[in-house]
Design goal:
Blueprint lengths: L7 E3 L10 H4 L6 H13 L4 E3 L8 H10 L8 E6 L11 H11 L5 E6 L5 H4 L3 H7 L2 E7 L3 H12 L7 E5 L6 H4 L2 H7 L3 E5 L22 H6 L3 H18 L3 H11 L3 E5 L3 H10 L6 H14 L13
Parallel strand pairs: 1-2, 1-8, 2-3, 3-4, 4-5, 5-6, 6-7, 7-8
Length: about 325
């Protein structure tokens, strides 16, 4: 795996359309809104960008691709995904979906290419080695795979002289099943980078949203998180208290926790200040007691944040 920064920046909320920013997050961000964010991130050395074909059905990749044209290709690291559920649009071919992504992203290779979910490990995984050997893909990962699925994917790839280089799963204070199921240990033991997505639960752990200030209605995250905000207030309050000791916000504490757990968090960026916040937490060291306290309050909240496309990793 190429040398990676300590965090990735996520473009899930970029662009509209199916599974786009308006539908999932309740806002519509286009190229003109996002260019200053991209520029700030690249200046800060945060050059790893994560997207997917399914995010806005190509809209996110298109926007990121407009920015890729403005920098030297070896100065940016691109992560995007093959999503089995929409494979029919690409003749059920991983390569054809990849080729469409390459075109939208204005590049001739992808640094990290993922199988977005394990709809059929035996069917889709064997299509990856040819992409690596062609040079179109530098490394491959699997997302939303449990431990057994991860191990099987690794077996399939190793038989072709490749391997799983990265795992990308939902991992936050409220969803630690990739740790308790042994996935984090497997990754550590096998030199696999663990990308943690939804570290802040789409803003529910940012400290911004409370029972008095819920998510605006009309988005998927409002539907998912507004009902559990009462249970989260003690946790986010504790995150703020710990943050005050480090001159950090609650959101920064949540992300720093993920880094301190040995993962590479994907930070959704929709404002320049999100980039600034991300840059400040990359080297923050939380104490063992602080980590234990955060996890204790998270357990006390006793909520499930497993979403409709996911499963618990145990």
């Amino acid at each position: 795996m190429i040398n990676l920064p300590k965090a990735a920046l996520g473009a899930w909320a970029w662009g509209s359309g199916a599974v786009g920013g308006n539908q999932v997050f309740g806002h519509n961000l286009e190229t003109k809104d996002l260019k200053p964010i991209f520029d700030a991130a690249m200046s800060a050395g945060l050059n790893l960008w994560d997207t997917a074909t399914v995010y806005g059905m190509g809209a996110s990749e298109n926007i990121l691709g407009n920015f890729v044209k403005t920098v030297e290709r070896d100065k940016i690291i691109i992560s995007t995904k093959f999503t089995p559920q929409i494979a029919g649009m690409y003749d059920n071919s991983v390569e054809k979906m990849l080729d469409a992504s390459l075109k939208r992203l204005n590049t001739d290779y992808i640094d990290v290419y993922w199988i977005h979910n394990p709809a059929d490990v035996e069917k889709w995984t064997p299509m990856l080695p040819a992409l690596i050997k062609s040079g179109k893909v530098k490394s491959v990962g699997v997302s939303n795979h449990n431990l057994a699925e991860l191990k099987r994917a690794d077996e399939i790839l190793k038989a072709e002289g490749c391997k799983v280089e990265a795992v990308q799963n939902h991992f936050s204070l409220l969803n630690r099943s990739s740790e308790t199921s042994g996935i984090l240990d497997y990754c550590k033991d096998n030199g696999i980078v663990f990308f943690a997505y939804m570290v802040l639960e789409q803003g529910a752990l940012s400290g911004k949203y409370t029972t008095k200030n819920p998510f605006p209605e009309g988005s998927a995250r409002a539907q998912a998180y507004n009902p559990i905000l009462p249970q989260l207030e003690e946790l986010t309050s504790e995150m703020s208290k710990i943050g005050a000791k480090h001159n950090l916000s609650a959101a920064q504490v949540g992300t720093a926790w993920a880094i301190n757990k040995g993962t590479l968090p994907i930070i959704g960026v929709t404002k320049v200040r999100h980039v600034d916040d991300a840059a400040k937490i990359l080297d923050v060291k939380l104490s063992a007691n602080e980590i234990e306290t955060l996890e204790k309050f998270a357990d006390k909240a006793d909520v499930s944040t497993i979403r409709e496309w996911e499963k618990k990793m145990e």
